[in-house]
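Standup notes
- DV: blocked on the single-chain target, sequence here:
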Amino acid sequence: MTIEHRSASLPYLFSPVSEEANKPAPLVLFLHGARDRGTDINVLLKWGLPRFVDSSSPLPYVFAAPQLPEGQTWVDRESDVIALLDNLITSQPIDPSRVILSGFSLGTAGAWHIAASHPTRFAGLVAVSGRVPKTLEPSQLAALKEIPIQIFQGAKDEKLPIEDTQQIVDILRGVGGRVDFTVLPEGDHFIADEVYSDSKLQQWLISQSRRTSVAV
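- DV (later): unblocked, structure below
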């Protein structure tokens, strides 16, 4: 079950960790796509990771999904995302060395940017149906080499060529990055339901940990 929260900056959906889970627990922070911007946060529950969390039994991780206003991007609101992360770590039983950042489409672009700008804050990155911002230089991508990355894309995604994503994968692997690139043969742009409900990915989310906790 997810609960709507209002913060000073961005409203967000929140789901606490299962009472039976070990604490402190991982945090999965999700950034939505362009179509879910606005003032009705319940649109996030229609699909993808928010719907999976909302329809599942309590999970072994804390979950949060902020919402953007119309016309804005996650790059615009980078500082607010980090402020939300800090607030959650302070107020919830979260292990700061086990924070996973994930995004879909527009949210993936934001996740790449935020993770590259704050690489010591995240234990993993999950990128679904989204491109790396053109403003992100290869030298900035190299900052992600210590973060395990899962990339998912549909082979029939008309918005994003496979070749573009493969180029990013090659750059990351070239600097020693740990990247898994999964192409769904029959998938189009909207593969979030299939990706996030996969048991292997759900296990991966709670299996990642940075070598040392980062003070906040």
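- Follow-up: The mean pLDDT is 92.
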